[in-house]
Amino acid sequence: MTTTLIVLAHPERNSFTGAWADASAKACADLGHKIVWSDLYAMKFDPVEKASHFKDHSAGSHFDMLKAQEAAAENGTIADDVIIEMDKVKTADQIIYHFPIWWFKEPAILKGWCDRVLANGAMHSVDERYDNGKFRGKHVLFCVSTGANAHECAFNGKEGDIEMLLWPMAHTMRYLGFKTYKSVVINGVHSYHTGKQKLDLEDTLTQALAAQSDVIKNLNTRDIIQFNSDNDFDENGTLLKNAKSHSAFIRHEK
Fold first, then answer.
1. CA angle at residue 109 from 38 to 193, to 5 degrees?
2. Which residues fall within 8 angstroms of residue 140, CB to CB, at 6 or more apart?
3. How far apart are CA 146 and CA 106, in angstroms?
4. Hey, CA dihedral for 64, 177, 44, 186, is it positive or negative?
């Protein structure tokens, strides 16, 4: 049985983002998946990584996040709320993230979830990352809404290319070994529309919810975001001259 983890990052459960997450859950359940949830706001998940989360950390001593996470993994002292989330990620065959774009990024609670849950030692290590990541063979999908319209979120739009804005999150998952499907993005989602614009948005959102079943059903045919393999880099981690660049984040000198 396929296990799907749905990670919802929106403070209003009755938002479009919440309804969209429900549509994903229903579509997965209709396919016979086991559904696991992480509704981060409902859980009151603490997104701030700090010394007080670590049982073995001595008060007043220097706090090194990576070393503290590694030690907690080795000593079996990972915080209880993090263990629960780690277990969800470990048992999931795929993760579907539902979130809005705020200030050109995912909400802070989701970034903090990554900081704490995708921890050094337990979820990755120097030898278990990228091509050798612990989560090879598993997949991720981002279902994202923007307040800006599609033109503004295009490669030449003034809000910035949405695919580039999502690249750091996709690269985070790539670091762990996941493959990430091309994102599903719904633009212009905000509550300031009036008149015909409001009606048009409501129609768009209704169609998106109805279409989610087909999105989930056809995930295995969806394009994968491309990243360079480990072999595309030299011993210093620099992209080889004959290696193709897949993103402006990792590119050849002009």
1. 95
2. 94, 95, 96, 97, 170, 173, 178, 179, 180, 181
3. 10
4. positive
Q: Which two tokens stand for residue 209?
A: 């919810």
CA dihedral 66, 67, 69, 72 (to 10 degrees): 180
pLDDT digits (tens, 9 = 90+) for 4-57: 999 999 999 999 999 999 999 999 999 999 999 999 999 999 999 999 999 888
Residue 201 CA to residue 18 CA, distance in Å, equals: 16
Identity at 28, one-letter amino acid code: C
Rounded to 10 degrees, the C-alpha dihedral 74/84/5/106 comes to -80
Cβ–Cβ < 8 Å for 1, 190: no
Determine the Cα–Cα distance for residues 145 and 189; give it in Å rounded to an integer: 6
Specify whether the CB–CB gap between 96 and 6 falls below 8 A.
yes
Where would I find the H helices in the chain?
A: 16-30, 40-43, 65-75, 80-91, 108-117, 162-165, 167-176, 195-217
Query: Whole-model pTM above 0.85?
Result: yes
Say how many residues make up the chain: 254
